[in-house]
Amino acid sequence: MRLLIIADTHVPKRAKDLPAEVWAEVGQADVVVHAGDWVTVGLLDELESRSRRLIGVYGNNDGAALRARLPEVARAELEGLRLAVVHETGAATGREQRCARDFSGTDVLVFGHSHIPWDTVADTGLRLLNPGSPTDRRRQPHCTYLTATVADGELSGVELHTLPPR
């Protein structure tokens, strides 16, 4: 099972649309995971129509229309892998311990908010992933997104992709 993991798209405030490379990944993914800050319902509608399966949450920049359609926390089992998605996890200091406590029984936690790519493992084995942003790099050198594979309850092949300047 191929995953595309994105967050903090901020369409249309930071970009008019997702980059073509990301749309190409949507077409190849079995599951698209979006960790919030969509900004517009139009992007949710388009991702729903173009994705085989979409798992998403709302972020702090998402208004009432998005919050009515998306949860604050999403949980899914993907071929035995226990996935949770949330927009914000708080400060980087102590993140692994906090998330291991708050998301016990989870194998992988996808989050956004910071626009900073993140890939760590808590003492409990919980893997924390932040894909950065494909549209708003903030203080990062590149816009980014993640892809990964799930098979037999295991996450593998996690790859951070950088996008060319727009």
From TrEMBL:
Top-level taxon of origin: Bacteria
SUPFAM superfamilies the record matches: Metallo-dependent phosphatases (SSF56300)
Domain Calcineurin-like phosphoesterase per the UniProt entry, residue ranges: 1-152
EC code(s) of this entry: 3.1.4.-
Keyword Metal-binding included in the entry's annotation: yes
One Gene Ontology term of the molecular function aspect: metal ion binding
UniProt keywords, alphabetically: Metal-binding
Gene3D superfamilies: 3.60.21.10
Main enzyme class: hydrolase
Cofactor: a divalent metal cation
UniProt-listed Pfam families: Metallophos_2
InterPro entries: Calcineurin-like_PHP_lpxH (IPR024654), Metallo-depent_PP-like (IPR029052), Phosphodiesterase_MJ0936/Vps29 (IPR000979)
NCBIfam families in the cross-refs: yfcE
Recorded family membership: Belongs to the metallophosphoesterase superfamily. YfcE family.
Listed name of the protein: Phosphoesterase
Organism of derivation: Prauserella flavalba
